[in-house]
Design a protein that fits this description.
Number of strands: 0
Structural class: mainly alpha
Distance between the termini: 33 Å
Order of helices and strands: HHHH
Radius of gyration: 17 Å
Shape: elongated
Helix content: over 70%
Largest sheet: none
Number of domains: 1
Length: 138
């Protein structure tokens, strides 16, 4: 929770970062599911993407809650790694429990793809922030 000394614009900026990070996480997980379904030429585009994505979305949401990602949602470590591994581990567990396919090649593809997406954009944000900070100090 923001301190009383934190200004309203700072609280709004922090809240916006949380909402933006959560939305980006969800969109990237949905993108992962859509790419996978397209690669395998599966029908049922909209419902199929959600059927594929929901376990990973649930895993990411659980990681957000357990690891309190909202405290620093755009940090690659630990936030990005937590969301990545939470989405992967719980996603695969939920897929297995609901009779969806969980085979080693898919686990490897999900590991690499979700890692690239969920940690990658946070690394890009950190790079831009560093660059902006250097320009401010000139």
């Amino acid at each position: 929770m923001p301190s009383r000394t934190q200004s309203v614009p700072a609280r709004t900026t922090a809240r916006n970062a949380v909402v933006l990070a959560a939305l980006v996480d969800a969109v990237l997980i949905l993108t992962f599911a859509a790419i996978g379904r397209d690669a395998h030429q599966r029908g049922d585009v909209i419902t199929g993407v959600f059927l594929t994505a929901w376990p990973f979305l649930a895993g990411a949401a659980m990681a957000w809650l357990v690891m309190r990602v909202w405290r620093a949602p755009l940090q690659a470590w630990p936030a990005g790694v937590a969301v990545w591994l939470g989405a992967l581990a719980l996603g695969m567990l939920l897929r297995a429990l609901t009779g969806q396919t969980v085979v080693l090649p898919f686990v490897i593809v999900a590991l690499l793809s979700l890692g690239t997406f969920l940690v990658g954009y946070r690394l890009i944000v950190a790079g831009f922030r560093r660059l902006a900070g250097r320009r401010q100090h000139r």
